Amino acid sequence: MKKIYLFLATLLLVAGCSESFLDTQDLTKKNSDNYPSTPVEANEALTGVYNIIPSMGGINNILLISNIMSDDCFGGGGQNDRDPQAMEYFRVKIPNEYSVPWAQNYKGIFRTNSLLSSIGKVDWKGGSAERQRIFGEASFLRAYYYFDLARLFGLVPLVTTPLPVNNPKATAEELYGQIALDLKNAIDSLPSTPITEAWRTSNMGRVTKYAAEGYMARVFLFYTGYYQQTTLPTADGGSITKDQVIGWIDDLVDNSGRTLVPEFRNMWPYSIDEATNYGYASKYHLKWVTDLGNTESIFEIPYCGLTMSDWGSKNYYNNTVNLFCGHRDAEAKLPFGHGWGFGPVNPNFVHSWPDADTVRKTGSVWDQDAEKDYTSSYVFGADMQWHETKYSEKKYIPINISTPNGIVNYAVKLYGSINDIQLDNTQNIVLLRLADVLLMGAELGSSRAQSYMDQVRARSKLPSVPVTLDNIKNERRWELAFEGLRYFDLLRWYGPEAGVIIKQNETGATIYNMAAQTSINVSDNGLFASIDQRVRDTGGFLMIPDDQIKLSEGVLVQNDGWINSGDIMY
User: Fold this and answer.
1) Distance (Å, rounded) from C-alpha 220 to C-alpha 246?
2) Tens digit of pLDDT for each residue in 499-509?
3) Measured torsion, CA atoms of residues 150, 536, 492, 61, in degrees rounded to the nearest 10
4) pLDDT digits (tens, 9 = 90+) for 78-93
5) Lower CB count within 10 Å: N or C terminus of the chain?
6) Closest Cα to residue 54, out of 331, 354, 361, 304?
7) Eight-state DSSP code of residue 566
């Protein structure tokens, strides 16, 4: 079945006209005074808001950033790929290392603010349901952009109008209060339509009430955990309680139409039945459910393969996280494709993962020694690979198939993608899935906590265990490995002391730099030794791009631990 593409051409929202001697109305050009004026134009503007989400690809994607900063993965890449290696040690290569996620998230916020400030000017022609839907989706998207900023950078400026401002950092209460209010507005405004395959055929990637309910739980857990609070404030002076969040989780589970995919490994494209020659998939009779058929996905980023070779302006339409995580051998092989070699898996994590959890362990980690009979010959030390561990994650990685024209990415055959490793990955990134929601419900203390935990474990043929915080921590790590959640879980559980856990779980790990054996402890001039202190000093948050500090003329203050940027360049 052909992939459904939600994201269309970017719509520029132009900040409008100024007063002149004569008060006139521009009848030929769109500006903030006359656009949007119809429901069609409001939907166009909403598409422009969505369009920012996939633009943060590769090393700028929060999933890859958080995987590398967690205790599950290392930086990797080639010898000269200093960006991910600096990230591994909580440093930066250049002062504006994170300019893209900062700028793009604020671009999404500006577009959302423009739409929300104009929504009252639209002639809805009695279509109140359409107005409510657009309001609800836009509200969620503003919360989404702010929450990513808050998780990456900590406290950031809060802007809720399209007018140019130079605000200092908001307080945690102000920032999370706006996020919570936007999510509450989305929950209250969006319809309770179940997420079925038929609905997804035309709406894949679109926000739903259930996505808002799931994100409310994620925001609540992060805010109350990291900032040590019991409730989540709302910008209108109210608050969100734990019981309310549990109620929303239960509603999602009961009414969203989402169900766990029966076979965990069928969620990932390596299980594709298009002649991958992957003996592992054949051995267990795996069959990929496809992006469209994933009954567990609640909110995701859809990708497509454009039929043009244009890395500079079109690369974000395809999944460049997969590209960055492919192995560095330049020859096309089966079933795992090649790329930049970022995010090698920490061998200590693999060794600590119980073998009894074989479905998830072998279904999430490519053990290059154990699977040598299932895959094409792996080239060790290819292209100056750094932090090599002989383990790679295989949830988000290029997948190749065999065709009469040679070995190509599956998207080349299924979706007509251009045969170019930089442009042909089309796997959707699932941002929120049901297993995550069930585990959040268990952690929050739902009356169904044991059932929620048991459902996740039973899917992978594991027995019931008591619902304790330690068991939930393990369950989240194993179930959601390499999905961009582990680092933020550590931050909310341990705060600035998360670095202690990361250092403890990475200490002694064997790595190979350009095929030479060493350990993460002594690699890269011994920077590993200060990981715990770096997280403590920075609170676990990234450096705000230096150019933003300068543009603010001192109004925006750099995050703690990054003040003397010249002292911490990698």
Assistant:
1) 10
2) 999 999 999 99
3) 50
4) 999 999 999 999 999 9
5) N
6) 304
7) G
